[in-house]
Amino acid sequence: MFDLDKWQEIFATLRQNKLRTFLTGFSVAWGIFMLIILLGSGNGLANGVEYQFRDDAINSIWISPGQTSLPHLGLKPGRSVRLTNDDHQEIASEIDGVEHITSRFMLRGHNRVRYGDKSESFNIRCVHPGHLHLEKTEMIAGRYINDLDLADFRKVAVIGEPVKEQLFGRATAIGKYVEINGIPFKVVGIFHDAGSVGETEFVYLPITTAQRVFNGRDRVNQIMFTTGEADLAASQAMAGEVRQRLAQRHRFALADQRAVAVDNNNASFQQVLQVIDGIRLFVWLIGIGTILAGVVGVSNIMMIAVQERTREIGVRKALGATPGSIIGLVLQESVLITAVAGYTGLVLGVAVLELGADKLPNSDFFRNPQVDLGLALAATGVLILSGCLAGFFPARKAARIRPIEALRTE
User: What pLDDT score was predicted for residue 32?
Assistant: First the structure.
């Protein structure tokens, strides 16, 4: 039941001890404020790390040729390994678990792309249809390269948004022909990419067409594929089998890591997740330590308050106050301070995070420093309970004071 007299007495006590009340509340508010800031900063770092993987499929394996560094079967080191269409076909057909696969054939040098009287240099990637999933390409108009394009050696092109803007402006690009190094290609699609702006300044061509038109024969510069729902162990087994098959086909030592680079994005992402988990654990340890320091501060302050009010408590008990009423009085004061201070720290912490998210420039390593509001409210609730616990022991001590001893206290 609400006891107005008791609350008036509590507020009167707080007004009489303003400095003590302020310091107690400040320690609690600072604890929850720092917890919110640390949680938000931890999320900002985690978001930044995850942002690094926005561009490519996480469940993917990337294969790039290199140069041998170890002698093998009588062959000297220093040989260049060249991947071919046969490597692509063997991986696609023989490796279990391959979901989407593509190769890349790159046109080196300056590639002029012309439409009408406008001409610019862009990077050209010649790929399979599976490239759409590896690069997280988003089609905003038309279509992507398909199997018929490859089978019929069609001269079609998919261009990025900046390419469309620079060559066509506001005019329609789908169905129009652009010249790439003097050879006409029909624009069949316009894409956007989840990665950086540079990833959209590309022109995609069917790899079979490009190899034939630009004298690429059967060469490919890179092979990559997604691993579907395979877990880390399964993806590592797939990467190992790929290396083994390539080592046999191109005659290099299996231990020669420089001959062919087989990069497993699954493993890289798991390592990143471990770093994120470490960051979050560190943040929680620091935050909990800060809150505990605040709770200990409240307990100490309440101890001092009980000691200062020993004579007053003795008078109360001499006049008939029960131990329960004494404990209730001290606990209510403790909970009031922690609740108000905790809420204040919560609001200030959230406000600083929102201000930081709005004012700080975008960074690839620190993004959206936000905190889950439900989690923050739960932390504040725990803090209030902790404040209640912190006030319990001083309250119990106060309830055990014998009136005759209390009245002798100076």
Answer: 82
Phi-psi category of residue 373: left, alpha or beta, with phi > 0 → left and psi -120 to 50 → alpha: alpha
Residue indicated by tokens 């506001």: 170
3-state SS assignment for residue 179:
strand
Tokens of 134: 């590896």
pLDDT of residue 407: 65
Compute the average pLDDT of residues 266-270: 86
Helix/strand/coil (H, E, C) string of the chain?
Answer: CCCHHHHHHHHHHHHHCHHHHHHHHHHHHHHHHHHHHHHHHHHHHHHHHHHCCCCCCCCEEEEEECECCCCECCECCCCECCEEHHHHHHHHHHCCCCCCEEEEEECCCCCEEEECCEEEECEEEEECCCHHHHCCEEEEEECCCCHHHHHCCCCEEEEEHHHHHHHHCCCCCCCCEEEECCEEEEEEEEEEECCCHHHHCEEEEEHHHHHHHCCCCCEECEEEEECCCCCHHHHHHHHHHHHHHHHHHHCCCCCCCCCEEEEEHHHHHHHHHHHHHHHHHHHHHHHHHHHHHHHHHHHHHHHHHHHHCHHHHHHHHHCCCCHHHHHHHHHHHHHHHHHHHHHHHHHHHHHHHHHHHHHCCCCCCCCCCCCCHHHHHHHHHHHHHHHHHHHHHHHHHHHCCCHHHHHHCC
Would you state the pLDDT for residue 410? 56
Kindly report the pTM of this predicted structure.
Answer: 0.69
The whole-number pLDDT of residue 209 equals 95
